[in-house]
Amino acid sequence: MRRLQVLALLGLATACTAMPDVVAPVQDQVASEPTSYVAIGDSLATGAGAERGYAERYAEQLDADTEATLHFANLARDGATSADLLAGLRDDPRFAAALSGADVVTINIGGNDLLGAQQQIAMGQCVDDACLHEVVDTLAQNWDAIIAELDTLVPADTALVTMDLYNPFVADMRALGVLERLTPFLDTVNAHIRHSAEQNGMTVVPVHETFNGGDGMGDPAVQGLIAPDRVHPSDAGHAAIAELLADVMRR
Known about the structure:
Rossmann fold; globular; disordered N terminus
């Protein structure tokens, strides 16, 4: 598979171990004058919870960094799961049309998968964490399939960028005494993303560390990075993500 550039953000969970510095130069794999940026994913990419989302903000920064006219397409959908994104890549002609000429693609997915399992736990419907085991396994399988589909849809020199999991619920989880119980499942998801990145020549940019700190235990709401809905990034959070994207692409 081609060398892919990935940044991660699956945003409704946590990996509470410090993320390694895995940001790598990507400029040599991006067209010198990118003219097409496509965002795919869920409500984080649509900008839910904020006036302007990270994808829109990053498009503006990318446009400012180039002299060419930038075409921006946002194919993200509120509530999308990893299965939804995979189905879209396989069956929706809009994805094939947009991705076939993309110079830069950002991806965030998986938060809704994990949120569903968390809701089952809150309602007492997840016996022995079975739902979490199932979600983590399915998410890993879908993630690999998504990367495989993208490999067939985008040009060889496209920069693919995704994001790791951040945790907006640190304070609530700590108060409920479940932070330590749920952390290993999120560690597993992020570890899979990192392993997949290594296997496919990808780069993972640690959004998680920006939101939750080096030890993964910081509360992003205290930093003003979480919107009033207590799930999605605030405008400040989206701005931080966009700046991470811009910083990686400028290297």
